[in-house]
Amino acid sequence: MALENLDKALENELLTLQDEGRAKPPERIIIGYRAPVGDHGPRYLLKGETQQFLRMNSNSYLSLSNHPELIAAADKATHDCGVGPGAVRFIDGTYNYHIELEKRIAQFVDKPAAKIFNSAYTSNCGLALTIGSKKTHWIGDQLNHNSIIRAMRIAGVPSGNKGIYAHNDMDDLQRCLDSVGEDIERVIVIFDGIFSMRGDYAPIDEILKITTHYNDKFCEGVITVVDDSHGIGAYGATGRGTPEFSGGEPDIIIGTFGKAFGVNGGFIAASKTVTEAARQKADTYIYTNPLSVADCAAATKALDICDSNEGLQVLDNLRLRTRQFRKGLDELGLESIPGPHPVVPLMVRNTAKTHGLVKHLFNNGILVVGLTFPVVPKGDETIRFQVNGAHTETDINYALSTLSTFKI
Predict the structure, then answer these.
(1) Does residue 62 form part of some domain?
(2) What was the pLDDT predicted at 132?
(3) What are the two backbone dihedrals, phi and then psi, of residue 110, each rounded to the nearest 5 degrees?
């Protein structure tokens, strides 16, 4: 009976979401993958659909999820140790594959140590629980990811101990730093490396120039943290992410294996002391089972591929296809937000047209994500395209040709 009453209450909440236009549509179900053939990149099969689909809504920027070496590594690890760890890390749930991945990702981002989590989301939450205190002040970008915002709430950061600066506005960041109370001992400046809905990036070099001047004001300094989930692996000359691209090295890097590396999981990379403190203090690390050894082995192999000639070639193709797509949008007279990242937003600026274009693309075998009011303000309606390393010149031309047949 109690659950029946709860169901009624939740049904009303779900109806409200639908009435407000915030309810998510039914989830499409992928039932198959088709490897690249000829001048076409990979295609996907959906339940209930007969045609194959070009995915332009995937975070797998390097298209490594189906790489045979990742699959073989995951298979070997599973046969070595089983499909699950059987316990949390501190109760003999740590396997050699966890340790190898932590060493490998720390090396990749050039930090002394790293600690892996089940996701970048839980990594952000774990970091906030680790380095927060009653005398810590948090400052974040206006467009930070939900996981950063939620992390502050989980860590119990009071409203008086946080500030928000206008997106990528360095003058406003300085204003936030100037307004920090004198009783504060440490300041955390936290920001996305790549802003996932826009494809633009944090000017880390400029952020560091500003924050350095405030270190002596606080006895424990100003700590810079970047969540580079959309940058790591897919951005910068060698895929080291936004720090490599922008020329600035933050104190702590949060990242994921679930985007460019094509696997699963997240990490904190920092000093050995910070990562040990996370092991001791972060609830999202302590009280949940870790990644499977299959995830760890596959992610380690992905990092090895990224550092190989093959990886550099994929990264180069990703840049070429991104430039091709962005140039094509310009030639069609369509509006985007400039930048070299493979997240390419198409500014439609109309809800009905956004829905119509998403349907048009779907009918022509292209998967994309549309963002409409009230999820975004009126006039900011957008379709987010994501270019992947296995996309071909033919694929991008087909997407542009399909766009050209719809009047925005």
Answers:
(1) no
(2) 94
(3) 60, 50
Which token pair is 136?
Answer: 């810590």
pLDDT > 70? residue 204: yes
Per DSSP, the three-state class of 230 is: coil
Measured distance CA(263)–CA(242) in Å, rounded: 20
- What value does the mean pLDDT take over residues 305-330? 98
Q: Quick check: is 293 in a domain?
A: yes
Overall domain count for the chain = 2
Q: Which two tokens stand for residue 148?
A: 């950063």
pTM: 0.95
Examine the domain organization and report whether 373 and 273 are in the same domain: no
Helix (H) or strand (E) holding 138: strand 136-141
Domain assignment present for 11: no
Please list the active-site residues. Answer: 196, 230, 259
Instruction: Show the domain range for 338.
Output: 22-55+309-404
> Are 276 and 292 in a shared domain?
yes
Does residue 258 sit in the same domain as residue 137? yes
pLDDT band at 377 (very low <50, low <70, confident <90, very high): confident
Please give the C-alpha separations between residue 151 and each of 14, 125, 311, in angstroms, as whole numbers.
25, 4, 33
| pLDDT band with cut points at 50, 70 and 90 for residue 374 | confident
